[in-house]
Amino acid sequence: MGRELQKQPQQEMASAVEQLLAVNPYNPDILPDLENYVNEQVSSETYSLDANLCLLRLYQFEPERMSTQIVARILVKALMAMPAPDFSLCLFLIPERVQMEDQFKTLIILSHYLETGKFRQFWDEAAKNRHIVEAVPGFEQAIQAYAVHVLSLTYQKVPRSVLAEAINIEGLSLDKFLEHQVANSGWILEKGGKGQLIVIPPNEFNHPELKKKSSDSIPLDHITRIFPILG
């Protein structure tokens, strides 16, 4: 019951912002509301790409009102949304002179490492810039989920050491993480030649033959319906 009561103000704010965006998204008067909403997204671990893009567009028209702290938070939240392309969408609306500031250069580097699957470099860089990423709760968990997503597209069986590097967890913490995945995500642990292997459930990317079965061909009755229309 208590949690529901806590959520209510956040839901009210989300509804109010949604209304503002619907009525007049280009009105600079809504700028403070959208900034407050970014902070609310951070504290409540929620996310609204539409509201954040709207704020970045307003900053383009009112550059003197831009808060670099708010922009940095928007970009961190966008990183957390990967594999969605939100980071690029947001970056496109940020002036180049702002992108040249150190904290934004760092976020762009972090984005590049994630996009190219260089997770060890990502975690090393993030560790050097804790003040940027730790300001947003849930960051580490969101990136770990993204890393698992990437591994699941690549591997049928992933060595424990590769997983440990990708999600930046070792030892007992990794054991606990694996227990959770076995219980909730269908992972299977087995012994490999040089240690533990994690068997990832099949999907159309790590088992391409599944994709073939799901999208083999267009059913014949669809073709017979289409051709008369084209004719």
The first-to-last residue Cα distance is 62 Å
**Largest sheet data:** 3 strands, antiparallel
CATH architecture heading of the largest domain: Alpha Horseshoe
Look at the structure and give the CATH class of the largest domain: Mainly Alpha
Shape call: elongated
The amount of beta strand, in percent, is 5-15%
Series of H and E elements: HHHHHHHHHHEHHEEHH
Radius of gyration: 22 Å
How much helix is in the residues?
Answer: 55-70%
Number of continuous helical runs: 14
State the low-pLDDT regions, or none.
Answer: 1-7, 220-231
Question: Any idea what the CATH superfamily of the largest domain is called?
Answer: ARM repeat, domain 1
Strand order of the largest sheet: 1-3-2
Average pLDDT rating = 87
Number of domain modules: 2
The helix/strand class is mainly alpha
Beta strand count: 3
Under CATH, the topology of the largest domain can be stated as Serine Threonine Protein Phosphatase 5, Tetratricopeptide repeat
